[in-house]
Design brief:
Blueprint lengths: L8 H24 L6 H20 L3 H19 L6 H32 L4 H10 L4 H17 L7 H5 L5 H9 L4 H8 L1 H5 L2 H22 L5 H21 L3 H20 L4 H10 L7 H22 L5 H20 L5 H30 L7 H23 L4 H11 L4 H12 L3 H18 L1
Helix pairs in contact: 1-2, 1-8, 1-13, 2-3, 3-4, 4-6, 4-21, 6-9, 6-11, 8-13, 9-12, 11-12, 11-18, 12-13, 13-17, 15-16, 15-17, 16-17, 16-18
InterPro entries: ND/Mrp_TM, NU5C-like, Transporter_DabB
Keywords: Cell membrane, Membrane, Transmembrane, Transmembrane helix, Transport
Protein name: Probable inorganic carbon transporter subunit DabB
Length: about 450
């Protein structure tokens, strides 16, 4: 009985995350659906989904893990279709359903491959054997299949459309999905990290596909106006970044990213109704748009901060991670150097102190999480350099979109990004051609009749 479940320090942390976010979303839903006749139905589906996620985390048997994984998707399907008469919700649910079934088949194939190679269904024992193995075609196949499952679960391009359209579902569903369920792809790879570390092919597959997806999705999010849609594109980008970190062997950074993203996205979606008030408050406060020279100063200050930290503590071992933290610190510093007045110097000093505290917190958390993971993978310098180049490209193109929108190639890039790179349209047409949705067609037909009668 005890072999069916396993609770490690890592899993205990993840369970704490699920508990905090789950309780917050359930409490929000209880208030938000007050007076709704179907509040009980929604809360039951919500609790079933959260319970299935908990079962995924504590599972220690391949079959039980797979069953819980499928259960999460089926329970989420009910939540997405809570308002079944919304065509976009129907379309999102249809695409999500098909992708989920495909990924579950891939996951089953990966588990069967691992079982046939190591002759055990106990996940803990399996990982111990994998860590002592010397690779091979079976292990490479299992790693590639797990990487594909994670790419689908984390809504990487071009399989991202359902995540964008799921904003038609109630706000608590979006919060649960973006703050928790979409992270399961990363959690899967963290649990099976020795398998991924044993295959350079699977790691490169993740680095290239998730890296390019993260870059494009991050740029597309800058072109969006709708708060929820912008957050959805941001989630796709952040999940790609997390997968890249795992592929590079930066497990502690990916775990820290997972926690930060979960808390941020749950807050952002549940607080999305106040965005207009925040926007108006910023306008009334006289918000100033930073110029290129302000960014240059912020980049210089953050680079100096990183150099001091590296000199004293040698905190950075990856070029990609260094570039990522550099840009993050620069984004934190740029508001303090944008407005020059009598309070500029104290404001810059306070921001630098805050940035130093965050860098110290990052270093400490990284050290402890590395010990918690207990898995060490060698860093591929070529993959690391490729990811760093992607980060530079993302930053440079973001600056170009913001400051030189009238340049011809920037205009064309904006149009392409504003259309979501046209990827979802192609994916939707292909999906509906291969497997049409009867309920969606009936709903569209009924709405067409209603609109025709209204015109008459």
């Amino acid at each position: 009985m005890f072999s069916l479940f396993l609770v490690t320090p890592l899993k205990l942390m993840l369970l704490g995350l699920v508990a905090i976010i789950g309780i917050t979303i359930v409490r929000y839903s209880w208030v938000a659906f007050a007076g709704e006749a179907d509040r009980g139905r929604f809360l039951r589906a919500l609790m079933m989904t959260i319970s299935a996620v908990v079962l995924v985390i504590i599972s220690n048997q391949l079959l039980l893990f797979w069953t819980a994984w499928v259960s999460v998707s089926l329970c989420l399907h009910r939540l997405i279709l809570f308002y079944p008469l919304r065509p976009r919700a129907q379309l999102a649910a249809h695409k999500k359903f098909l992708l989920a079934r495909f990924s579950e088949l891939l996951l089953a194939a990966a588990f069967i491959t691992l079982y046939s190679e190591f002759h055990t269904a106990n996940i803990h024992d399996l990982m111990l054997q994998v860590a002592q193995a010397h690779g091979g075609p079976q292990l490479t196949l299992a790693a590639v299949l797990l990487a594909l499952v994670a790419l689908i679960k984390c809504a990487q391009l071009p399989m991202h459309g359902w995540l964008i359209q799921v904003v038609e579902a109630p706000t608590p569903v979006s919060a649960l999905l973006h703050a928790g369920i979409v992270n399961l792809g990363g959690i899967l790879l963290l649990f099976f990290a020795p398998v991924l570390a044993a295959s350079a092919t699977a790691s490169w597959l993740l680095v290239v596909l998730a890296g390019v997806s993260s870059t494009i999705a991050g740029l597309v999010s800058t072109t969006r106006i709708s708060v929820k849609v912008k957050l959805a594109w941001s989630t796709s980008s952040q999940m790609g970044l997390m997968l890249v970190e795992i592929a590079l062997g930066l497990y502690e950074m990916a775990l820290l990213h997972l926690f930060a993203h979960s808390f941020y996205k749950s807050y952002s979606f549940l607080n999305s109704g106040s965005t207009v008030n925040h926007y108006l408050a910023a306008k009334l406060a006289g918000e100033i748009k930073p110029k290129v020279r302000h960014w240059s100063l912020a980049l210089t200050l953050s680079a100096l901060l990183l150099l001091v930290a590296q000199w004293q503590f040698a905190v950075m071992t990856s070029m990609a991670a260094t570039v990522l933290v550099w840009f993050a610190l620069s984004a934190l510093l740029v508001p303090s150097v944008t407005r020059w007045d009598s309070g500029s110097l104290p404001r810059i000093i306070i921001t630098l102190l805050f940035a130093s505290a965050l860098l110290t917190l990052y270093t400490t958390a990284k050290h402890h999480l590395a010990a918690l993971m207990g898995v060490d993978a060698p860093l591929n310098p070529y993959a690391d350099g490729f990811v760093a180049l992607l980060f530079f490209s993302l930053f440079a193109l973001s600056v170009a979109l913001q400051y030189w929108p009238h340049v011809h190639w920037v205009k064309r890039l904006f149009i392409w990004l504003n259309a979501g790179a046209y990827l979802d349209e192609w994916a939707t047409r292909l999906t509906l051609k291969l497997w049409p949705s009867t309920s969606l067609l009936q709903l569209q037909h009924a709405q067409w009749h209603i609109n025709a009668e209204a015109k008459q």
